Amino acid sequence: MLGHDPKAKHDHHDLTIPSACTSCGGDLELRLVPGGSHAYCISCKWLSRPRVTVRNGIMQVAQPLLAEA
Ligand SMILES: [Zn+2]
């Protein structure tokens, strides 16, 4: 055992977007993983899969709209 290799398992990025929850306005924990992203609201526990794109070095997060019946 040589200890953990930071390159081996650290293939995701976590960040927090303040007041970004479209459901309650709470802080959103965003996890970027290869092939997608997951968002989790700290306040209301709402889970979503936003579409994250990076254009000219600016990250854009597109939240899927909640369906209205
Ligand atoms: Zn929320």
Relevant terms:
single chain; binds zinc ion; mainly beta; two-stranded antiparallel sheet; 6 strands; four-stranded antiparallel β-sheet; 1 helix; globular; 69 residues; 42% strand
In short:
With about 70 residues, this protein is mainly β. It has one helix at about 5-10; strands spanning about 15, 30-35, 35-40, 45-50, 50-55, 60. A hairpin with a 2-residue loop joins β5 and β6 (about 60).
Description of the structure:
- By secondary structure, this protein is mainly β.
- The chain has one domain (11-62).
- It is 6% helix and 42% strand.
- The chain contains one helix and six strands.
- It has one helix spanning 6-9; strands spanning 13-17, 28-33, 36-41, 47-48, 51-55, 58-62.
- A hairpin with a 2-residue loop joins β5 (51-55) and β6 (58-62).
- The chain is globular, with a radius of gyration of 14 Å.
- The termini are far apart.
- Zinc ion (ZN) binds at residues 21, 23-24, 26, 41, 43-44, 46.
Write the layout of secondary structure elements.
Elements: H1 6-9, E1 13-17, E2 28-33, E3 36-41, E4 47-48, E5 51-55, E6 58-62
Antiparallel strand pairs: 1-2, 2-3, 3-4, 5-6
Bound molecules: zinc ion.
Residues 21, 23-24, 26, 41, 43-44, 46 line the site of zinc ion (ZN).
